[in-house]
Amino acid sequence: MWVHPLVAERTEKGHFYVLYNDLRRYPDKFISFCRLSILAFDRLLTILAPHLTLQDTVMRKSISAEERLLITLRFLATGESYTSLHLQFRVGKSTISNIVRCTCTVIWQKLQPIVMPSPTEETWLQVAAGFQSVANFPNCIGAVDGKHVRVQQPPR
User: Fold this and answer.
1) pLDDT given for residue 110 in this prediction
2) 72 alpha carbon, distance to own chain's centre
């Protein structure tokens, strides 16, 4: 069989086609579904869509960037298995796997320079100055809070 009957019903019974538009009418339910506000989802989609959009072919219609992002966010928000997502979204398990992997890669490539830029020497000096002024702790560039670290005394 070319496409499993469950997957063939994607546009009639899949989460994206059945729930997505309803969730967008209820922002609190949207947030609980994918752990992101509608505004944040739309902003993220604007950044990622050009890199997540695939071309339709004669054999099949591609999965939209919107659906790809929703599947990935659902996976990241819940930790559900690919099998569970496969049944909910009516997309093949291997396709779910590829969508999650590719979308996470694109998220990292596009957001890392914006959200987590590589620190410069000036940034480190500012952090150290902050620790010096707030905690009177010189030459410190980071701290771990609430973590017990066992330190063993070296021999002799």
Assistant:
1) 96
2) 6
As a whole number of angstroms, the distance between CA 7 and CA 108 comes to 29
Q: For 75-117, how does the pLDDT look when each residue is reduced to its tens digit (9 = 90+)?
A: 999 999 999 999 999 999 999 999 999 999 999 999 999 888 8
Place of tokens 């590829």: 98
CA distance 154 to 46: 54
Is the pLDDT at 1 greater than 70? The verdict is: no
Task: Concatenate the DSSP letters of all residues of 33-73 into one string.
Answer: HHSS-HHHHHHHHHHHHHHH-----SS-PPPPHHHHHHHHH
